[in-house]
């Protein structure tokens, strides 16, 4: 059952505006979302009907990327902006290839963090899996806390994941510099798995709909930014 709106008393949960992580969960037919998120998602789909399909494609991309890295020998992952747990979580995919794999999830959305903890308590391994509340823009803090979990070995290659999240940061937050700083902290042999919204090579047909859905997101707690 979807969470009840009165459950917003959980510390830090903002129900005044829809949240991208919870809306994304709704697109994926998840249940970790509130009425305001479902209403927003439905309106976005009216404006741009394939938005839910794009969310599913993004999730499939994450899965393929984790599989690829694991097959290259990457056994530990740092997932930035991991969102609400749903089908095909990073640790599940990695464990299918390497049962000794490790993963630290990071998100600034209280619902995402709370439900990640529930999932890991139920099916995870505290020696191999952890979740941190935090803002991925605080690079040094996130890195220090991720290493301090004891889950990740900073001397071994790490798969850094920033899928479906960087476009929620505006130019004033300089996501290019943020990723550069993470890159400089990564050990030799590391991988970066990332995705971003772009209109490069997009057909002219649909421009109005894409513009309108971007305007709709501008009214949420997570406006998105398109880059080339």
CATH class: Alpha Beta
What is the CATH topology classification name? Rossmann fold
Give the N-terminus to C-terminus distance in angstroms. Answer: 39 Å
Largest sheet, spatial ordering of strands:
3-2-1-4-5
- The overall pLDDT, averaged over residues, is 89
Architecture in CATH? 3-Layer(aba) Sandwich
Tell me the strand percentage band: 5-15%
The strand count comes to 5
Provide a count of the helices: 8
SSE pattern, N- to C-terminal: HHHEHEHEHEHEH
- This entry's quaternary arrangement is single chain
Overall spatial form: globular
Please name the fourth-level CATH homologous superfamily: Vaccinia Virus protein VP39
Q: Can you tell me the residue ranges where pLDDT is under 50 for at least 5 consecutive residues? A: 1-10
Give the proportion of residues in helices. 40-55%
The computed structural class is alpha/beta
Please indicate the count of domains. Answer: 1
The largest pleated sheet is described as: 5 strands, parallel
- Gyration radius (Cα, Å) is 17 Å
What does the model show?
The structure is a single chain. The protein is of the alpha/beta class and 228 residues long. It is built from eight helices and five strands. The chain has helices at 20-27, 35-47, 51-71, 90-97, 110-123, 139-148, 175-185, 207-218; strands at residues 76-80, 102-107, 129-133, 159-162, 191-194. The protein has a five-stranded parallel sheet, with helices on both faces. It is globular and about 50 Å long.
Question: What keyword list fits this structure?
Answer:
alpha/beta; 228 residues; 43% helix; 5 strands; disordered N terminus; Rossmann fold; 5-stranded parallel beta sheet
């Amino acid at each position: 059952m979807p969470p009840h709106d009165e459950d917003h008393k959980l510390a830090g949960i903002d129900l005044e505006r829809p949240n991208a992580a919870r809306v994304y969960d709704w697109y994926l037919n998840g249940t970790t979302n509130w009425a305001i998120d479902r209403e927003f998602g439905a309106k976005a789909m009216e404006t741009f009907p394939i938005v839910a399909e794009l969310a599913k494609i993004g999730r499939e991309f994450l899965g393929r990327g984790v599989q690829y890295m694991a097959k290259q020998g990457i056994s530990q992952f740092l997932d930035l902006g991991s969102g609400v747990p749903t089908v095909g979580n990073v640790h599940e995919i990695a464990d299918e290839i390497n049962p000794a794999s490790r993963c630290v999830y990071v998100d600034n959305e209280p619902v995402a963090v709370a439900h990640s903890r529930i999932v890991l308590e139920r099916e995870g391994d505290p020696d191999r899996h952890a979740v941190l509340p935090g803002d991925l823009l605080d690079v040094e803090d996130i890195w220090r806390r991720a290493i301090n979990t004891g889950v990740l070995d900073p001397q071994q290659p790490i798969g850094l994941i920033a899928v479906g999240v960087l476009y929620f940061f505006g130019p004033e937050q300089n996501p290019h510099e943020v990723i550069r700083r993470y890159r400089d902290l990564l050990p030799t042999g590391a991988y970066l798995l990332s995705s971003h919204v772009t209109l490069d090579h997009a057909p002219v047909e649909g421009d109005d709909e894409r513009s309108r859905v971007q305007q709709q997101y501008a009214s949420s707690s997570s406006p998105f930014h398109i880059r080339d």
